[in-house]
Specification:
The chain has about 90 residues and is mostly beta strands. The chain has one domain. It contains 1 helix and 7 strands, in the order H-E-E-E-E-E-E-E. The protein has a 4-stranded antiparallel β-sheet, with no helix packed on it. A 3-stranded antiparallel β-sheet has the order 5-6-7, with no helix packed on it.
């Protein structure tokens, strides 16, 4: 399990190109997904970072895991409303 100290250390070692817009813990295991205003989505698991989506200029405003904690999904605002962007 990640401690508060571990989260602070993760922030020091990696910075997103924009501000954080969403973050969510997986209901199973020790996975943390983080999204940015630039559209980046990163997954932290066992102190390892995996980039799920690179910056694309479209802010990801919400994130969620499936009930099993296996799939990450996010949504971003669009002119016609919210658009779901699955990022696995």
């Amino acid at each position: 399990m990640l401690s508060l100290k571990s989260l602070v250390e993760l922030q020091v070692h990696r910075s997103l190109s924009e501000y954080i817009t969403a973050l969510v813990w997986s209901p199973v295991g020790n996975r943390l997904a983080i999204a940015s205003g630039a559209g980046e989505v990163v997954l932290w698991q066992d102190f390892q970072e995996t980039i799920l989506q690179a910056a694309n200029g479209a802010s990801i405003d919400a994130l969620g895991f499936s009930g099993e904690g296996a799939v990450v999904g996010g949504s971003r605002a669009s002119r016609g409303g919210d658009t779901l962007a699955a990022v696995c």
